[in-house]
């Protein structure tokens, strides 16, 4: 919860010497979704494209030359 821990910033401040990337919520979800789309896909049907996460995924796919329906 971003309101609870600042999206991971409290963890990073508490452990500054750890060399890890903090990924949570929407960022992690988007990474998993994009990683699961086969490289040879030419178009996808995306629902929820008006949400913050859906829009980011749709724009990324368009930049990769994938047609988003």
Automatic annotation (TrEMBL):
What organism is the protein native to? Nymphaea colorata
InterPro entries recorded: NAD(P)-bd_dom_sf
Q: What is this protein called?
A: Very-long-chain aldehyde decarbonylase CER1-like C-terminal domain-containing protein
């Amino acid at each position: 919860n971003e309101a609870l821990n600042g999206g991971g910033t409290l963890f990073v401040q508490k452990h500054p010497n750890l060399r890890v990337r903090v990924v949570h919520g929407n960022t992690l979800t988007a990474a998993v979704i994009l990683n699961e789309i086969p490289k040879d896909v030419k178009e996808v049907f995306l629902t929820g494209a008006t949400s913050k996460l859906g829009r980011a995924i749709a724009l990324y796919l368009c930049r990769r030359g994938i047609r988003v329906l």
